[in-house]
Design brief:
CATH architecture of the largest domain: Alpha-Beta Barrel
Largest sheet: 7 strands, parallel
Bound molecules: N-succinyl phenylglycine
Structural class: alpha/beta
Radius of gyration: 20 Å
Helix content: 25-40%
CATH superfamily of the largest domain: Enolase-like C-terminal domain
CATH topology of the largest domain: TIM Barrel
Order of helices and strands: EEEHHHHEEHEHEHEHEHEHEHEHE
CATH class of the largest domain: Alpha Beta
Shape: globular
Number of strands: 13
Number of helices: 12
Distance between the termini: 19 Å
Length: about 375
């Protein structure tokens, strides 16, 4: 196979959310994101591949942000891919290697690898699930519940999601919004699969307070401490009965291996965008599986493009916990692809060639604030 990228178009989108989404680090009322369109020739035939970037408008979840992604992609990443394709050729599987000289910027790299892999799979006529060897046809769906104004409001929101059929509830927590809301949800729903996510809002000084959460039979506590506090997560894990899960701290298969061997993570949230792409995400799955460490697929408020790809990834055997793969309607009144819907608490894994369904051009245009096309020589 020969693959040649002709040009890459970055679509800057702003998609309104059905309700504001509050975490310990921000309140979002619209998802501002970059969707990447790669125009390529695969074995001489024109193919378009699509990807999306996990970055937010501001560097509040990780150090990446949309304007930075555009800049690093145009200034450094695309020239490297251009040089590599003049000098021996590229495939989706070698994109990561070609981009290695640039430190970090994993979300920017992930979006490009994603779109190139999509083009490659479309040309080959195989779905991402087939590519990964996935045999399941659907994955259980969990929902992430943002921080609310009051506990009664939270209970209403959780009731609504359970009525829709979600199989697991994740509550966002932060200092001042933790034990009370968790207790209230547990008392209202003694048997529901429940977990919490702090997005790095605590320090080890809060250990005694956090152990109060142990009383509520949680599946896991996600990323209570800062991104680079691996040792401190290991210490906290020793004093908490609730299993420790890492998100922000795990940025590669190597850091997953470190976290597991240090006892800092009993469970890993895999977000392809955070770790530099779906191929590194698969490597983390493999490392974790080899250690007997459970993984689940996180979410970054993906459009149908990333949601479909996440569903396929989450079909791999080590994904033994429900992911943040909800219906499109959890966040968006209108998705840019055919919406993903809940079917008895499950999301169906796409079977069409490529990573995702093609976005609807008119819907995409309606959400587009700007586009930037870069020719790749
Ligand atoms: O279902 O897509 C989803 C959202 C799940 O809570 C969720 N994501 O910290 O995991 C997180 C959070 C997030 C969203 C983080 C957007 C960064 C950006």
């Amino acid at each position: 196979m020969t693959l040649k990228i002709i040009s890459v178009t970055y679509h800057s989108l702003e998609i309104p959310l059905v309700t504001p989404f509050t975490t310990s680090f921000s309140t979002q009322t619209a998802r501002k994101m970059l969707v990447v369109e790669v125009n390529a020739e695969v074995d001489g035939t024109q193919v378009t591949g699509w990807g999306e970037c996990g970055a937010l408008a501001e560097p509040v979840y990780s150090e990446e942000y949309n304007a930075g992604v555009l800049d690093v992609s145009e200034t450094f990443l695309l020239p490297l891919l251009g040089a590599a394709q003049r000098d021996g050729g590229i495939t989706a599987e070698t994109v990561g290697k070609h981009l290695e000289p640039i430190v970090g910027h994993r979300m920017a790299k992930s979006a490009l690898e994603m779109a190139i892999l999509d083009a490659q799979l479309r040309a080959a006529g195989i779905s991402f699930a087939e590519y990964l060897g996935v045999t399941r046809d659907r994955v259980p769906s969990g929902v992430s519940v943002g921080i609310q104004d009051s506990v009664p409001r939270l209970l209403d929101v959780v009731d609504g999601y359970l009525d829709e059929g979600y199989q697991r509830i994740k509550l966002k927590i932060k200092p001042g919004w933790d034990v009370d809301p968790v207790r209230a949800v547990r008392e209202a729903h003694p048997d529901v699969a429940l977990q919490v996510d702090a997005n790095a809002a605590y320090t080890l000084v809060d250990a005694a307070h956090l152990t109060k959460l142990d009383a509520y039979d949680l599946l896991l506590i996600e990323q209570p401490l800062a991104e680079d506090d691996l040792r401190q997560h290991a210490e906290l894990a020793r004093v908490m009965r609730t299993p420790m899960c890492l998100d922000e701290s795990v940025v590669s298969a190597a850091s997953a291996a470190d976290a597991i061997s240090m006892g800092a993570a009993a469970i890993i949230n895999i977000k392809p965008s955070r770790v530099g792409g779906y191929l590194e995400a698969r490597r983390i799955h493999d490392v974790a599986s080899a250690h007997g460490t459970a993984v689940w697929c996180g979410g970054m408020l993906e459009t149908g493009i990333g949601r479909g790809a996440n569903a396929a990834l989450a079909g791999m055997p080590g994904f033994t916990l429900p992911g943040d793969i909800s219906a499109s309607s959890r966040f968006y009144a209108q998705d840019i692809t055919t919406p993903f819907v809940l079917e008895d608490g499950f999301i169906r894994i796409p079977t069409a060639p490529g990573l995702c369904e093609l976005p609807n051009e008119d819907t995409l245009a309606g959400f587009t604030k700007a586009t930037r096309t870069v020719k790749v020589g």
